[in-house]
Amino acid sequence: MTLIPIDDPDDPRVAAFRFNERGLTNRVQRRSDAGDGLFMAEGDLVVERALAAGCVPVSALVDSRRPPAITEQLLHRIDVFAGGELMRTAITKMGTPYSVVALFQRPARVTVDEIAARTDRIILVEAVDNPLNMGSIARNGLGLGWSGLVIDSTSADPLARRALRVSMGQTLHLPHARVGDMSETIKTLRAADWLVCALTPDVAAVPLEDVAPDGRIALLVGAERVGLTPAVMEAASIRARIEMYDGVDSLNVAAATAVACWQLRRR
């Protein structure tokens, strides 16, 4: 197969590359556990990791002058369109277009029970609606040995374009589940002997270094300004704080997650 040249940015064959997040996946599809809608992988590394994760490609758009090496893998499976920098900019609306962007089918999500059965380290996320933070949390967790992510219904989509970019595609390799009631999920985990450690800047919380990194641990983090909701905080096994120097009350949620994942890692 060969590259398919594109000389009109309004060519209907590349219309999907002009879609925003909602155009690729609507609200109902994002909430579906069955795997519905599309996600976009931007850049050769993210595309490569999407393929390595077993995601199914739909179509791709590459640099016609210098197609990246990953193009060869894509050509055997899907239509690969090609255009120069100006053409790809006009199609994708990116200031500096990537050498490759690809559309993939959204994979089905796993359940909390499936995650809990295969690991002893899970990150629980409530009301973190910034995709950049979500992508960083996933990358930090995976890089520090944590193997599962559970997010509530108000949190950002781990497969959003910005989440994928900032995680360098790693959100595709960290199994995630979405739940409607985080407090009930926490109660279920605790009943199965999980220690649920809620991060908070509250000075009354125990120092994080005093939490023993033994057994099965679920790290619970929330929105930066308002923190975890009372019901979710109450459901946790323990509340822990990262001790800070005077004048700074807390870290960014992604940075705090990295510190806690390191402190509570398997030993």
Write the layout of secondary structure elements.
Elements: E1 4-5, H1 21-24, H2 27-31, E2 38-42, H3 44-52, E3 57-63, H4 71-75, E4 79-83, H5 85-92, E5 100-105, H6 112-118, E6 121-125, H7 131-143, E7 148-152, H8 161-166, E8 176-179, H9 182-191, E9 194-199, E10 206-207, E11 216-221, H10 230-235, E12 238-241, H11 253-263
Parallel strand pairs: 1-4, 3-4, 6-7, 6-11, 7-8, 9-11, 9-12, 10-12
Antiparallel strand pairs: 2-5, 3-5
Helix pairs in contact: 7-11
Structure description:
This protein is α/β, with parallel strands linked by helices. The chain has two domains: 4-105, Ribosomal protein L30/S12 (60s Ribosomal Protein L30, Chain: A, 2-Layer Sandwich); 112-263, Alpha/beta knot (3-Layer(aba) Sandwich), CATH 3.40.1280. Helices cover 31% and strands 21% of the residues. It has eleven helices and twelve strands. The strands form two sheets. Strands 8-7-6-11-9-12-10 form a seven-stranded parallel β-sheet, with helices on both faces. It has a five-stranded mixed β-sheet with strand order 1-4-3-5-2. α7 (131-143) runs parallel beside α11. The protein is elongated. The termini are far apart. The mean pLDDT is 95.
